[in-house]
Amino acid sequence: MEFIRNYVPTSKAQLLQVVMTYCNGDLKKAQEMFDFYAKNIDLPDFDPVEPTLMQQIKTNASGIFSWLKENQGDLINGYQLIQGIIKNKGVLTTVADDTSEALTSINE
Length: 108
Description:
The chain has 108 residues and is mainly α. The chain folds into two domains: 2-38, no CATH class; 53-107. The protein has six helices and no strands.
């Protein structure tokens, strides 16, 4: 009985199968047990069919492409920012040089 207490059914068919196994084929006992467990639980009749690998790939690819379409402007701005930083390496060193000069004048 401990097994059935910890069992979480996903469908009525699966619950019925577990109850039948637990009752060793005793239909009357299995029917009573099934009615007891299933009366207050809202379960689908059968387990939902798991999508195929191709359907999963299609769904994920669709999600990725829609995200890229929605964020296209931000991605282009980020790409242009990175390109600008790479092309203008002197800008970063110039800023650092100006800062170090300002710090030396404060410390004097």
